[in-house]
Amino acid sequence: MGRFKTALINEIEKLYKRKKLVVALIISFIIIILGQLIILGVNRGFGIRGVGSMEFPMLVLSVVVNTILPLFTALVAIDSFSGEFSNNTMKIALTRPVTRLKFFTAKITAILLFVLFNLLFVMVLSTLAGLIFNANSFTLRGVIDIIVSYLVTLLPMLVLTLVIVVFTNILRSGVGVFFLSIFVFIILKALGMVFSRYSGILFTSMLDWYKLFTISPLPILKIANKFSMMVGYVIILFTTGYYLFDKKEF
Amino acid sequence: MKLKKKTAMLISLAVGVFLFGSTALAEIASKGGYEQMKDALKITADNMATKMKSYTTDMSFVMKDNGNVIYSDNIVTKIDVSKKVEEITETRVDGNKKFESFRYRDRERYINYNSDQDVYYVHELSGSGKEDVFLPNQNPFKQKEAADIERIVDAFVGNLKDYVVVSQNSDGSKELSGTLSESQIPALVNAIVSFQFKNEFGYRASLGNGIPRMTKDIYVKEIKGKMVVDKNGIVQSVLGTGILYGKDDNDKEHNITFEVLGKLTNVNSTTVKKPDLTGKKVEKIVSPSENGVGNPESYIGTYKNNIVIQKDGKFIKIGERIVEITSFDGKNISGKYREEYLKGYENYASSGIKEYTFSGPLEKGGFGGRVNIQDSTGSSGMCFVSIHPSIPKINLNPETIKTNMNDYDGEFNRVFE
Fold first, then answer.
1. Are A174 and A79 in contact (CB under 8 A)?
2. Transmembrane segments in this chain: where (chain A) (predicted)?
3. Tens digit of pLDDT for each residue in A200-238?
4. Across the interface, do A47 and B19 touch by the CB < 8 Å criterion?
């Protein structure tokens, strides 16, 4: 476990040094400010309330989860794998006394921590913005909904991360992986719209699964079903990703 | 060691595939509340269009402002498909104003009544019009575009379909319901609805005098829906409720509640009776049927319009065009046309002809046709005649013989002596 921890800290440090985190946070910040400005404009201009303070973080989440969050997750994941393949820094890391499984897991954990940090940042900032600028409708239920919604989004993001990791282990070029990921993302989104009957099994439609947690009464069966489907995804993708990573010659 | 790792990977892959496969299958196979709702609507529409012999629908719409009813509308429709009889009763209360209307229709007649006029208008039907008036119910899901529209709606509804909850009753019937609170309604939908409402009621009073003019902080607070489906899958009632919040110019808060309730009752046991009109104000109207004008003799007579010119920036009447219908039996029409000029304006007379006779058949089943015209000198041509189906008006437009075309007016009104 000690070795895993060292590998993880090492990965986090690398991730932090690449400055992607800062860029992601700045863009999230800009989106929140822009969103808030649009809503204030709508309120003053059209006399429509737009959103209440509790709805604003949800609105931001629904935008972020389908745009910048997958985008930056892809960038970070590609950096972490393809980037190191091409820079040949992967060799150095692998010479350390840590198994490839632990190393692979550490990398994914680091990416996940990045996603979590980004989500929490957006959550806190949008809640604050919502409280300051919007008609006050603060409720405990609202706060719980917000926290749960942001946290459960981590699971579909893990699925997405693993999909990209599998791609990085198949294609050599980081740019190739990036465009492939975006292509697949858009295609699956479109397929989900056309064949809405089957959209439930596509991982792109699971990004919105946090909405299930705001329904009352809580649709436990549906949540359990979605959860085990995502766990299924995670196991398949993790195993495939690790298999490819393990076979790789450096 | 190598083998063990491979086995572990295979096992884990198998577990993953199993987990994903089983849940994915469950996801596809299970019909969620939304799918069940669509099925119920389809079954009901199909039954109404093909199987049900008679039924009663009861639709009502109520609007409340902070709990006080400001507008209500109730429409009860009784339909007997086998006898081709239909009766529609509407009661509307708008503020303090009450309005009632009644419509009855069978193969022989239709009867209209509204409380504003307090007269029963009885339209007796004739000819092939008898059958055509009654259109069979169309199943909206069988229309050509239905499948595409359904797909668009599905995509639009998206994840909202998860909000439909099903509760099964012991007698086989079930209740589908869903509640969307403000944070669950997509922000865009909320904004559009609020904006529409403001546009509709914020400035002008098109309907509902009691509706407050809300101008600030408008938003949709809640949307609720409930549908009761019987054991045969037929919708028995649908209830929709929406709450809109907003402030008026004086910062007074308003919660506007909209309620729509639809019920389907008395399937195959609805009877529609011809209303008893004894002692009521009745007006008979013989309406035009497919065979053309209803009462052709009544159109025989004189029709006129003015010959008008523009002079010194004013309209001046210089004479009259007079049309006399001498005979009309619904098919053939004949008559005379002449122009009479006032004293001093004779020189304005058309360079062409001032007088001609016309005669010929109208188009079959129509209200107009091209007929022959002939003037006193013997030259002839064609002219388009048309008869207004319900009011005493005719149109006469010569095609070949020149009249004062620039200011020619072909519309003639009946002259009553």
1. yes
2. 21-39, 59-81, 110-135, 147-171, 178-203, 223-245
3. 788 888 888 898 888 877 888 889 989 999 999 999 999
4. no
